[in-house]
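Async update (no meeting this week)

Hi team, since we skipped the sync, here's where things stand on the single-chain job. The sequence we agreed to prioritize is pasted below, unchanged from the tracker. I ran it this morning and attached the output directly underneath so nobody has to dig for it. Comments welcome in thread, and please keep replies under the output.
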Amino acid sequence: MRYTNMLRISPFIFLLLFCCSCAQLGSLQTARVLEDDTFRLNANIYAVNADSGDNELGVATLPHAEVGIRYGLGLNTDIGLKISSSLNILLDVKYQFVGDLDSRFAVAAAPGFAWQFTSFDEDTRVLRVHLPIYFSFHPNERDSYYATFKNVYQFVSDSDDTWFPGGNVGYIRQINQRFSIAAEASYFNAYLLDIDNNSDGWNNVFLFGLGFIFEL
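Output:
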């Protein structure tokens, strides 16, 4: 049954992957973890708006797409793997330390590591460390509200390293037992760890996302 469901939605997944983008800064999930031995598939699309702090480069808006799968490990823990349209792969482990699968309030931490395959230079390596904290409120079985506070550290082998502090707020509506839709808004500040260069490049990053969640 799980494999049949994945085959049915695979054309939609491949369509999303044709979009372009960069780092995975969105969430589109709550603090609740999955039940033991269950799978969830996410297909997400974002509009990413980057605003130059020096006002010389103007504003750029780019599409961004992600496809991810999560698996419930039990003991208030699940694990996730996401790939983006820029060939950015994120692996994270989420641990829920407040609430349970049915509680109205939940809090979780989900540290993760991301690798990006770049085509600009064979010697360029990009690694990101994700340190998010999730908070969510579930007033009933169908509606969920969440906020995520994140610190993302980007390390580039031949360039300046970057710190992205910021967060996400969002809403998830369950359509039926197998399918939900999520909407999210996010803000991050791109801060170069080389303080002498912080007037350069994109400073403010806004994301507006839509997620499609499939319970497998």
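Quick observations from my side:
Residues 2-215 form a domain with the Lipocalin fold (CATH 2.40.128).
Residues 174 and 180 are 4 Å apart (CA to CA).
Reply here if anything looks off.
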